[in-house]
């Protein structure tokens, strides 16, 4: 009975099917070590001094002034008719001088003259009012 200790000619052409798992294990160990090292850094807490709810002040809501422009170019300031342009100027200057300016809500009629509406808007802006809205 004889044994072939040498390489067989039939096995020389076949590829080696076994996978070398040593590099994979090395990579997994390196990743595991990196994970273990970085986890304590993520769990550190940061101490913050937060404001309590009792100290918060609600902002003061601005006053709303209604300016109605009728179809016949009549201007009503909070329901009171404005006699002329000088009276409108005085009312706008008084409101513009306030620290917390009111919101001017202009309510033009559908049939109101465009020149009157545009004039009131331009006048209010020129005299320093910044909070102006137009509503129907």
Automatic annotation (TrEMBL):
The lineage of its organism: Bacteria, Pseudomonadati, Pseudomonadota, Alphaproteobacteria, Acetobacterales. This is Biopolymer transport protein ExbD. GO terms for biological process: protein transport. The keyword DNA damage does not apply. The keyword Protein transport applies. It comes from Entomobacter blattae. Keywords: Cell membrane, Membrane, Protein transport, Transmembrane, Transmembrane helix, Transport. One of its GO terms (cellular component) is plasma membrane. InterPro entries: ExbD. It is found in: Cell membrane. One of its GO terms (molecular function) is transmembrane transporter activity. The gene is exbD_1. Belongs to the ExbD/TolR family.
């Amino acid at each position: 009975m004889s044994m072939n200790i040498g390489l067989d000619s039939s096995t020389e052409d076949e590829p080696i099917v076994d996978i070398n798992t040593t590099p994979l294990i090395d990579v997994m160990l390196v990743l595991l070590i990196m994970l273990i090292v970085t986890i304590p850094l993520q769990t550190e807490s940061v101490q913050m001094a937060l404001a309590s709810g009792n100290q918060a002040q609600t902002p003061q809501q601005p006053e709303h002034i209604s300016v109605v422009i009728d179809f016949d170019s009549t201007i009503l300031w909070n329901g009171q008719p404005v006699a002329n342009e000088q009276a409108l100027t005085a009312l706008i200057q008084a409101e513009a001088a306030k620290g917390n300016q009111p919101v001017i809500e202009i309510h033009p009629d559908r049939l109101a003259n465009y020149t009157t509406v545009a004039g009131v808007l331009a006048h209010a802006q020129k005299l320093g009012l910044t909070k102006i809205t137009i509503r129907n």
